[in-house]
């Protein structure tokens, strides 16, 4: 039998480059589809040298290119996207890449009859949650063009499921972090800012009481969830991918101070702060994917600090 081929958009990015080695271990062929605007070319070249990875350097905005490049693929992972920050600064590009790109990939996957499509959705589709932990059936209130496009992407998948039988899973990623992430990344800017200040002997500054929280999920665990979603019996569902634990900014600062062996104390700046908290209900991920996280935020952040010190 010939190997199954995974077509992975945005595969040269942070998460894609953690997923691809797991797919290679399972004997898939990999076809990366990436415009390389932010891709790691050196790492992609290393993967191509294995003989089981190829790169198609094109853009998801061009439907014909997506359709042609997907020929022969049995599975699709759709990661290509414009970030939250950039979507606010430039809504036009965000809608073009995130909305038109989504439709181009989904339509091609439906036309080619792929076995499964996995879509990188986002916890941001919930907006500010009314309760914790956040469940997939909770009300959605996406606030930015990026978040709106993720919700619309899930709806589009439902359309292609109903009309053409497309099998899909949409993973609502919470706050992913880990080695190889660009330091300006939306969710990790606070981590990197804290690390830089603590290393310089300066105290991290925190607005308010530091009660704002995120559900930090390590990229190694998250990559496993993608492979599980590609192969699961259950399909056609949005699925939260997080730890189920909300880590406050004050707690994060303490974890990083301890990991760096520093004796600085955080400085809390009194000001009104909209306290938003996030934690995923991961019951569905356990039941449908047979997946759960294995790396605690303390372990993951300590490893991240160790790696930063070694650079």
UniProtKB/TrEMBL annotation:
Drop me one GO molecular function for this one: UDP-glucose 4-epimerase activity
**Listed EC numbers:** 5.1.3.2
- Keyword entries, A-Z: Isomerase, Membrane, Transmembrane, Transmembrane helix
Assigned protein family: Belongs to the NAD(P)-dependent epimerase/dehydratase family.
Q: Where are the transmembrane segments?
A: 6-24
Query: According to its UniProt record, what is one Pfam family this protein matches?
Result: Epimerase
The record's annotation in Gene3D superfamilies points to: NAD(P)-binding Rossmann-like Domain, UDP-galactose 4-epimerase, domain 1
Which residue ranges does the record assign to the NAD-dependent epimerase/dehydratase domain?
6-242
In terms of PANTHER family, this protein maps to: DTDP-D-GLUCOSE 4,6-DEHYDRATASE-RELATED
Q: What InterPro entries would the database entry show?
A: Epimerase_deHydtase, NAD(P)-bd_dom_sf
| Record's protein name | UDP-glucose 4-epimerase
